[in-house]
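ESCALATION

Customer reports they have been waiting on this structure for their group meeting. Please prioritize. Original submission:
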Amino acid sequence: MNVKYDFDKVVERKNTDSLKYDFAAEFGKPNDVLPLWVADMDFPAPTEVFARLEHISRHGIFGYSEPKGPYHDAVKHWFFSRFGFSFDKRDIVKTPGVVFALAMSVRAFTSLGDSVLIQTPVYYPFCDVISDNGRNIVKSPLVCQDGKYAINFADFEKKITDNNVKLFILCSPHNPVGRVWTREELTRIHAICSAHGVVVVADEIHCDFVYGQHKHTCYGTLDENAVIATSPSKTFNFAGLQIANIIVKDAHLRSKLKAEIRATGYSRLNTFGLAATESAYTYGGEWLEKLIEYLTGNINYLRRFLSENLPEIKLIEPEGTYLLWLDFSAYGLSQSELDHRVTDGAKLWLNGGEMFGKEGHGFQRINVACPRQTLEEALNRLQREFK
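Update from on-call: job pushed to the front of the queue and completed.
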């Protein structure tokens, strides 16, 4: 293997204040669990990012920063070259993260008591940013048919009209079920939301992780009145640098969003996050291609392992993301029983399915963005407990 892209290398992360590795006790987990839960890869970022951050660090002054032309050019080129999504510098609203942007969008585009639509099971902070801001959560559950999730468009539209929904938060690609929505599916979403005056906020943080013949369609290529939430943090594994780029082409929506952000007192981003983003989007393409190859290998390994050793556990075939959705329902366990056996029996720290909504009953989410030997150990632990 080219050592430049040695994803097999295990990097010790314990005792680094890592949320993933150092907080088992605080989360009520045994200290000897193997963590494959939070969406945080066990791979170092591209070397070009290291070099840029090292250069800034050596300078020694960490004052207020604001990016100039090369930053915006790098962001624009990344999304146009990969997804055909074009936008101007003025359309980019920089925030410390996607979840922050979702919360600001809820506040900017809805009022207290308004209804916001989500598709469950879904990334659990969606519920938090709605309910914590005094809005009403409306759910249009996805439907699992023959091991693949689909949108119930009749229910989707009915929920909008019955509840006077003002905002829809789209997860694309979808976390945790791994769907990469087709252009046709997204076009139907746009038609329904446009007909009923619903603002769409698309969380596309996993857009760079797509497998096989599947293709990510940026929702912004279909709807210029949408809010597109992006970030390099998942793609290049630097969530701790707190950086996201929210693309808002509509001037009225952009003004409302920026006003809500200003009201928080937030103004300047992390200097290192800005530099890492520019570097990653400029030089990180080859690294990402090699990473996708490696993750594909991990997914193939997990699929074979379950088929040969634990056929009762069904893999929902991932079209995107590095977070796999595993169906344990054949064991007939309650969610608490399942979580207990996974955590205290197999000594694995995964995400229990019901945290993503009641539709996740009987499921576990596993993060396979780790060296192969880590994944092998995790699956061996699972086999010893459930064989």
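Sent to customer with the following note: The radius of gyration is 21 Å.
Escalation resolved.
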